[in-house]
Design a protein that fits this description.
alpha+beta, 7 helices, 3-stranded antiparallel beta sheet
């Protein structure tokens, strides 16, 4: 039987916790422990589990205890599992997947609420991932800046070069019919539907401009915000091992995979969970 309580170690002041005592391969999963894990996830923005020996069926079953898996628009799922994509960088490659600060697929009308990433193969060094709390980033702004952003909306596009240039070799694997452009307008400040807390909801990977403004007019404020969003005091850093599993909340976090392991292989399996239409303040 699984233990009745989970052991939690915070990684940093603003975001991130490592959780011990949870075996995602157990069937059936203990409902009380899943509820505890979900509470910790909402509290810390991202939770990490180590030593998770999961096959694809078990990984998918665990994901379904948190939410509803959805297909990723640009990369085909692994054989037999449309909802599990492989995020990989091979020994000869120089560019990694999603190598810019971002929150997943903000260019969709209903961006995923959460992402699960399971380490299959990791390099002997490097390949860590940084996470940043966008709740902490919002709360650290001045009252005047918060008031300004509360009334703004952002235009997000899958065509933005900062993201597409990190993925084009992988996008090419899915076939021509999948390579359309997605664009969505969302509030600059998102109200979390479960906690009620406010978070910045723009990112360097997808956000093109503020609605009603030109790219040039938007650029100075977006540049300030992107630099603010990734300040060290809002972040944590996770060192992967084979079997490490991360679950993060796309509604209030950003992440950045560090590309410092050239000549080595890194293979991860990813599932994203269905989200809602982002809600703002005004």
């Amino acid at each position: 039987m699984q233990p009745s309580t989970l052991r939690v170690s915070r990684l940093a002041g603003a975001i991130g916790a490592e959780v011990d005592g949870f075996d995602a391969a157990r069937a059936p999963l203990d409902a009380e422990l899943v509820a505890q894990l979900r509470t910790l996830w909402l509290q810390h923005g991202v939770v990490f589990l180590r030593r998770q020996q999961l096959d694809s069926d078990q990984f998918l079953a665990f994901a379904r205890t948190i939410g509803t898996p959805v297909e990723y628009p640009f990369v085909r799922g692994i054989d037999g599992y449309a909802h599990i994509i492989e995020v990989k960088k091979l020994e000869h490659e120089r560019v990694n997947f999603g190598g810019v600060w971002h929150t997943d697929t903000a260019y969709l009308e209903r961006p995923p609420m959460a992402t699960l990433l399971l380490a299959r193969e990791v390099p002997p060094h490097g390949g860590d991932t940084l996470f940043a709390s966008q709740t902490a980033a919002y709360e650290a702004l001045s009252e005047g800046m918060r008031r300004l952003l509360d009334g703004l909306r952002c235009v997000n596009s899958s065509a933005k070069a900062d993201t597409s240039r990190t993925r084009e070799d992988r996008i090419a694997e899915v076939g021509r019919e999948q390579r359309s452009t997605y664009e969505a307008e969302h509030p600059a400040v998102r109200v979390h539907p479960e906690t009620g807390r406010r978070a910045l909801y723009m990112n360097a990977g997808h956000t093109v401009r503020f609605a009603g403004m030109t790219d040039a007019e938007s650029a100075p404020l977006l540049q300030f915000l992107h630099e603010h969003q990734r300040k060290e005091e809002f972040t944590c850093r996770f060192l992967w091992e084979p079997g490490s599993l991360a679950l993060w909340d796309n509604r209030c976090t950003q992440h950045y995979p560090i590309n410092d392991y050239h000549g080595h292989r890194r293979v991860m399996h990813r599932i994203t969970l269905e989200g809602d239409v982002p809600r703002g303040i005004l």
